[in-house]
Amino acid sequence: MNKPDDNCDASLASDGRFEEALKRVSHQPGMLLGLEATRAEQDYHRRRATRHGYWLHGAGTVAGLRVSMRAEDPGNDTDNVRVRLVVSPGIGVDGLGREVSAAEPYCVDLGAWLTAQFEDEAAWGVLIRDGYAEPDNLLWLKVTMRYQDCASGLQPVLATEINAGTDPVQPSRVADCVLFELAAERPQDVADDEHLFAAHARIRPFGEIEDRLGERERSHIEASSGAARGQLELGARLLHSLGDDNQALLARQAFLTDPALLARTLLARIAIRLTPPAPEPGLVVNPRRIEVDNLVRPFLFNAAALARLIRS
User: Fold this and answer.
1) Average pLDDT over residues 116-142
2) According to the 3-state scheme, what is the secondary structure of the chain?
3) pTM of the entire structure?
């Protein structure tokens, strides 16, 4: 699995600024346009597509991206065995609306990763703090995905300063890549708030916004029933899902939260049974002690999938 390189991921910060109005280049005869204009033109079309994905489709898995465990069965749960986590090829959308495409499987040696954490007292302490559930003696991990820029195609460039370097080069292309990450997180620590838009505030329940509706609006809802009433109530919740000031489109906790955290989208949760139990749980990497749950992730269903579901 990739290592994050947010310093090179130039689009990460800008993709999280939903409050910014997009601007495209106005091409006029005789106008001198430089590198900035070319970048602005690309940025406009890319961020427009990203916002379409964010607001109209949401975050989740479209197809594939299944997390599986590969290991030899030792016949017991006491021997350490090499265990690998594999993410299959697939398509998804991350928490900032950016398309994620993996054309090949990605793999991490879970045993080597866990052993490295276990041997580092500080790192293991963080895993226990964030992922250990004492009642069940389980260590909980999560696998997430997000889009990441990847510079490629290095080419020689003219140095901007004297003696700036020997044969200076710059990337000639930026590839669309995917970043899979592994982190500790207890399921019970995740808020149940409904976030239709991953980077923004929760969608408040109907009871919290009902008093903000007008008399005629309430009468529409009261006169309906069943699915029609549920649709109207959801519409009312969406009407009041954002603020009423110039900070309405600002990503939640934008000044406190790393955009990378908002972009991460859940793929699977992994439960690892430790030994012995607390207060000092130990580690045995064995497939009989590990379970992978892929169905806790959010899914995105396209029109064809929904039509098939309705027909069935």
Assistant:
1) 93
2) CCCCCCCCCCHHHHHCCCCCCCCCCCCCCCCCCCHHHHHHHHHHHHHHHHHHHHHHCCCEEEEECCEEEECCCCCCCCCCCCCEEEECCEEEECCCCCEEEECCCEEEEHHHHHHHHHHCHHHHHHHHHHHEEHHHCEEEEEEEEEEEEEEEEEEECCCCCCCCCCCCEEEEEEEEEEEEEEEECCHHHCCCCCCCCCCCCCCCCHHHHHHHCCHHHHHHHHCCCHHHHHHHHHHHHHHCCCCCCCCCCCCCCCCCCCHHHHHCEEEEEEEEECCCCCCCCCCCCCHHHEEEECCCCCECCCHHHHHHHHHC
3) 0.88
